[in-house]
Give the backbone structure.
Amino acid sequence: METKTNERIWYDNPNLLTSILIGLIAVILILSQSFAVKNNLAVTDILGSLLNYNSIYILTLVYFVALKIKIGKKYFDFLNILLILVYFLISVASLFTVFQSFGISSLISCVLNIVLLFYLTYTFTKETKFYKDLKLDQIPFDEVAQEWYFYAISVLAIILFVADLIVVENMQAVILATLNCVYSILFARYIYLYNNHLERKKKKEVKE
């Protein structure tokens, strides 16, 4: 019983989940760069990996670290818009990747990024003026239960993980694929918890 309680505390605690995401992203960045150095890649290749493959992790790390300090909490909505723009660019890039090198991994990755983008946009803009400006209020997001968005992202992340395992050639790639899968699921959970926060806030305002 105590174990279940502890699991619920970390899994449903946005502050603790944010700290776990910061640690996870830091581990991904450190390991990916250390693997690059270990494989004797050139400095330009290492920097290219940092700016391309790891760009999303660098930006999300900045985002979550900012949430831990006062200035990040003050400009929370602004940070969310920047995060949405980042995922929009990632989604567009993954879409081009599908056309350039069609494969199971690239296709699933593209779908995963697009679902994350829609879920992120819907959740983090519905309390802002952007929600109506982008006409998101006309899209029936609420017709689907929030749990199903989270489940869909989790299943896609796991399928992508399995697809990556089929083509990986070394243990380093397996480790990174595992961490990428965990990150996607925890990030989806973070969005889910924020949506629950908005729902509780709305119910409280109705009661008052």
User: Anything to note?
Assistant: DSSP finds ten helices and no strands in the chain.
